[in-house]
Design brief:
Layout (H helix, E strand, L loop, with lengths): L1 E5 L5 E7 L4 H9 L5 E11 L1 H16 L4 E6 L1 H9 L7 E4 L2
Length: 97
């Protein structure tokens, strides 16, 4: 299960597992957003290659319009996946404390 919701501070909270089953809904949600997007990933438990594809597509779309994607509160496990995949080179990532 995955939920994405806009938060009062302007960020988007993502909770659960971003895998192939949830990727289309996540992409549809993120496609409606513009400008810089900050994802609060403190409750993101898992991300698959399909989830990485969602992040990459979103980052490319935002950069075309002078925006960007930023991930904050990323758990150690998810952070390792992002680094091994090279996403730390294309997306700003802030690890959880």
């Amino acid at each position: 299960m995955l939920t994405l919701e806009s938060v009062a501070d302007g960020s988007v909270a993502i909770t659960g597992r971003l895998d192939a089953a949830q990727a289309p809904a996540a992409q549809a949600f993120l496609d409606r957003l513009t400008g810089p997007i900050e994802l609060d990933c403190s409750r993101l438990e898992y991300i698959s290659s399909a989830g990485l594809g969602v992040l990459l597509k979103t980052q490319k779309r935002l950069m075309a319009g002078a925006g960007r994607l930023r991930l904050r509160g990323v758990s150690r496990h998810v952070h390792d996946i992002l680094v091994y995949s090279g996403f730390d080179q294309i997306i700003e990532i802030e690890a959880a404390e």
